[in-house]
Amino acid sequence: MKGALTRFRVMAYVVGVFLLLLVVAMVLKYAADMGGMMKVVGPVHGFLYAIYLVISVDLALKLRWSIKGTALVLVAGTIPFLSFWAERKVVEKTAQGVPL
């Protein structure tokens, strides 16, 4: 269980950071007509988000989360800063022994 939670925590932070980089890349692409960063960060974020989904579902199955809780954690990787908040909530609820 601890390994699955650690993997989730790492991926939540990695996906969160890359999502913020993606926002910067989008601003540069559309505001400054500099699309080079978007060509790199976009696919990398997509790949990392797919890994985040697999790791999150694995943790959800192990901790018997509700469908709603699982869906909210999965969506957290698509909204800037939300993956950081979700990671904190998951760690807090797991420490308390309360499923999402």
Automatic annotation (TrEMBL):
Location, primary (coarse class): membrane
Membrane-topology descriptor: Multi-pass membrane protein
Keyword Phosphoprotein: no
Signal peptide (from-to): none
Residue intervals passing through the bilayer: 12-32, 44-61, 68-86
Domain DUF3817, residue spans: 5-90
Protein name: Integral membrane protein
Subcellular localization, as worded in the UniProt entry: Cell membrane
InterPro entries hit by this protein: DUF3817_TM
Keywords tagged on the record: Cell membrane, Membrane, Transmembrane, Transmembrane helix
Pfam families: DUF3817 (PF12823)
GO CC terms, sorted: plasma membrane
